[in-house]
Amino acid sequence: MNKQIITELSHEELISALKEMKQPAFRANQIHDWIYKKNAASWDDMTNLSKELRQQCSEKWLFNSIQMAKSVKSDDGTEKLLLKLHDGEFIEMVIIPADTRITFCLSTQVGCPVGCLFCASGRNGLVRNLAMHEIIGEFQAGCAVIGRIPDNIVFMGIGEGLLNYENLMKAVERLTEEKYFAMGVRRITISTSGFVPGMLKLADYGKELNLAISLHAPNDEIRQKIIPGKIRYPISEIMEAADIYREKCNRMVTLEYTLLKDINDSAACAKALSRIAREHHTKINLIPYNDTGSEFKRPSTKTINTFEQILRNADVAVSVRRERGSDQAGACGQLRAEHMN
Ligand code: SAH
Ligand code: SF4
Fold first, then answer.
1. Do 82 and 171 belong together in one domain?
2. Is 332 one of the annotated active-site residues of the chain?
3. Positive or negative CA dihedral for 131, 339, 40, 187?
4. Looking at 57, 79, 92, 249, which residue is catalytic?
């Protein structure tokens, strides 16, 4: 890529770049507003700039390096975008409507180095990190589809975001700072497979971002059947980091739990999980396994309901992820995986 992407520039850098082009500061502010306040999807959208200036800008900067390759809509309204990056790699983002609110599920890496055995995203390892402007670029691709910014963002797409900490946090700052997209920090959730050093860094950052931890098992013995050893931390260390996070950031943490038949779906697992949730004041999000062609199976509806009920009986706040987008290669990383085949 020989051109800079316009979102790589800060507001101040944009002003000085326009100054060099002999343009007044208010022009830079107009461009800034088109990008961050008026949801432009291209230079051509900036109708109060002269054609000549738009031309000059587009020669100097790319508006977005990401192109939509495919869009797949599910019966429930979920829309998944397959996005092509400048180097020919692919990622996905998902638009999830619920009532009047819309959530974006965003990717943080191309592939994933963690390689959880049920997940399509990590099957071929990590290709590379996403740059800040690419994370913003997928956000903008989603905004172009819905015509506004979303109400919530979850970083639950492809990749382990805390292993791309710097770029992810730069993107979070762009998304939340008043001057840029100005989304509330409490509307953003970062999901991690339990990368403890990253969780501690995020705790030190000290903002009220939501943290979701993919625990998937109540003990390390079961967990090691699901997550390979390379980047897997002991549950005791993960929960200690979760406590620190809750205290420093003043947010209740969520534990995600992908339910896998005969692996982690027993009543004993539910009871052990409820003890962890109560001890560490966490919520639980149950995610029945979405088939990705792995060795695992989804538990029966009855088993899922029983598991949920045991948690409820123990006074744990629990939600079950509704089957969203599962009719259209809904599981995380699946559209990309299919495309690669
Ligand atoms: N890497 C981060 C965020 C991306 S995955 C993490 O692991 O937390 C987001 C969530 O989707 C995780 O809880 C993950 O376990 C879950 N997930 C991924 N593939 C799935 C599948 N096929 N079925 C059910 N849950 C899945
Ligand atoms: Fe990576 Fe998360 Fe998939 Fe595990 S579940 S392979 S950490 S994206």
1. yes
2. yes
3. negative
4. 92
Residue 334: the pLDDT is: 72
Mean pLDDT by 10 residues, the chain (341 residues): 92 96 94 96 94 95 94 89 96 93 96 94 93 98 95 96 98 98 97 98 97 97 94 97 97 96 98 98 95 92 97 96 58 70 64
Q: How far is CA 253 from CA 77, 133, 310, 339, in A?
A: 28, 28, 20, 34
Rounded to the nearest angstrom, the distance between the alpha carbon of 274 and the centre of ligand 2 is 23
Which residue CA neighbors atom 10 of ligand 1 most closely?
Answer: 156
Alpha carbon of 152 to ligand 1 centroid (Å)? 18
Q: How far apart are CA 247 and CA 162, in angstroms?
A: 19
Q: Indicate the number of domains in the chain.
A: 2
Helices and strands (H and E) in the chain: how many? 11, 14
Q: Is 160 a catalytic residue?
A: no
Q: What does the angle CA 121 – CA 118 – CA 162 come to, to the nearest 5 degrees?
A: 50
Ligand 2, atom 4, lies closest to the CA of 116
CATH number at residue 22: 1.10.150.530
Which range marks the domain in which residue 120 is found?
A: 67-340
Q: Are 248 and 276 in contact (CB under 8 A)?
A: no
CATH of the domain at 312: 3.20.20.70
Report phi then psi at 256, rounded to 5: -95, 145
pLDDT value at position 331?
A: 59
Ligand 1 pocket by Cβ (under 6 Å): 112, 116, 118-119, 156, 160, 191-193, 214, 256, 258, 287, 289-290, 292, 331-332
pTM here? Answer: 0.95
Q: Hey, how many other C-beta atoms are within 10 angstroms of the C-beta on 14?
A: 20
